[in-house]
Design goal:
By secondary structure, the chain is mainly α. Helices cover 77% and strands 0% of the residues. The N and C termini lie far apart (75 Å).
């Protein structure tokens, strides 16, 4: 069979297999959550005893960390890391490792931790593509393409968004090119569109919606940048500075018990949030859906409180080793910020809709933190098909990324880098601990 025909056949096979696998994975997560929380609705959670709300996330995260101890590959893998591992003939995640990752992810998500399911979905798709290729025997030089087919299939399936899945894979694999050039390209193109729209009629499919662009949204998006930056600084300070210092201290004092300490901290934190504000935990899928569809109306004060809680639970989930991605949790934080901002503007007579800025905030917050500006814009496109969301998203995500990088060096951290760094510190502190014990014995 010609190489092109083999790749096309492989793509179809991977698409079908990945779609079924991701559907089972997501349904299993929902089912476990329903079992653990007897329906997982806010009403059922609020009626459960407080000790049970602490017990479920604590036992779950302890089990997840036990699985990580058994197989470090259970921790997150990105698309680029998987492709590089295969290309360099290095250790790749095994079927056993993938199974354990899925189990750990289902436990993390189902028990309330603020992680998403896109990371494991990308890994599921990548592994399926890698294994199916053993049947089709596509040459080694196409390994990145094969992994990309699987990863993008996983993302497209979990978000039920085909273009977002494609752009996600492209932006990860062509990251060096995108990092250097995409920001100025996007900003220039979107500003030019906003100006030209005032004078020239675009080609419009008359059955489409959201193709009427209002210049007020550009002005509102510029005013939105300092607001989103404030919460970005809170999130990044908590994650990259405060918790990094805490992580350093715990490693220094407890060495190999670091995972146990953070698991207990994570279980206690999620249990507390389940007790006082259940909507501040879980992946955030329901929060995003409710806000962008104008189904949830809460005061600006409560929104600010919930945003801060979700920032805390997301950071705690990361350091507790909850297995999953950050896509949805970051989107939920941004959606809350955007909705609250829109409410303030609307109350002061500004002609914008809060639910539109919920969609803008969701895309921008995720795009800045994960360094995925193009994916953020396409996500806004697929969610809304509305120029009044897409254009402000492009302006805000590029400018917010620039300003955020003035204080924080936001970059894509590889899972392998994180694991090696932690392992080196564990070994270093274990050595220091033994030396201190020997000195105490001598005394």
């Amino acid at each position: 069979m010609p190489i092109v025909a083999r790749i096309l056949t492989l793509s179809v096979t991977v698409g079908v297999t990945t779609g079924l696998a991701i559907s089972l994975y997501v349904l299993a997560t929902r089912r476990l959550s329903d079992i653990l929380f007897f329906g997982r609705t806010l009403e059922s959670i609020s009626s459960l005893p407080w000790w049970y709300l602490y017990l479920v996330p604590t036992l779950s995260i302890l089990l997840v960390n036990w699985l990580i101890e058994k197989d470090p590959g259970v921790r997150e893998y990105g698309v680029t890391e998987i492709a590089n591992a295969v290309a360099g003939n290095r250790r790749f995640i095994t079927l056993k490792g993938l199974f354990l990752k899925i189990v750990a992810s289902v436990l993390s998500l189902g028990s309330g931790f603020s992680v998403g399911n896109e990371g494991p979905s990308a890994a599921i798709g990548a592994m399926i593509a890698y294994k199916i290729n053993q049947l089709f025997k596509v040459p080694e030089r196409f390994v990145r393409l094969i992994i990309s087919i699987g990863a993008s299939s996983g993302i497209a399936a979990v978000f039920v968004s085909p273009i977002t899945g494609i752009v996600f894979a492209v932006e990860n694999i062509a990251y060096e090119f995108v990092q250097r050039l995409i920001g100025p390209i996007v900003l220039g193109a979107i500003i030019a569109f906003g100006v030209a729209y005032q004078f020239i009629d675009p080609i419009i499919f008359r059955y489409s919606v959201g193709r009427v662009f209002q210049a007020e949204y550009i002005a509102a998006s510029l005013l939105f940048i300092p607001v989103i930056l404030l919460f970005l600084f809170i999130y990044l300070t908590l994650k990259n500075r405060l918790f990094q210092s805490l992580n350093h201290m715990v490693l220094q004092r407890f060495g190999k018990r670091r995972n146990l300490i953070f698991a207990l901290l994570g279980g206690a934190s999620i249990g507390t949030m389940l007790t006082i504000a259940p909507f501040s935990v879980f992946s955030g899928h329901e929060v995003v859906m409710a806000l962008i569809n104008d189904r949830l109306h809460i005061s600006v004060i409560i929104i600010t409180f919930v945003v801060l809680l979700r920032i805390v639970t997301t950071v705690v989930s990361i350091y507790a080793n909850a297995v999953g991605g950050l896509f949805l949790p970051l989107m939920s934080i941004g959606a809350l910020i955007g909705f609250g901002y829109g409410e303030v503007l609307k109350m002061n007579g500004f002609p914008i809709e809060p639910y539109s800025f919920a969609a803008i905030g969701a895309a921008v917050f995720m795009g800045v933190v994960m360094r995925l500006p193009l994916t953020a814009i396409v996500l806004a496109l697929e969610i809304t098909y509305d120029y009044n969301v897409i254009v402000p998203t492009g302006v805000a995500v590029i400018l917010a990324t620039y300003f955020a990088n003035l204080n924080f060096n936001i970059r894509k951290l590889k899972a392998t880098e994180i694991k090696i760094s932690v392992k080196e510190k564990e070994c270093q502190y274990e050595k220091e601990w033994k030396e201190r014990k020997n000195l105490e014995k001598e005394r």
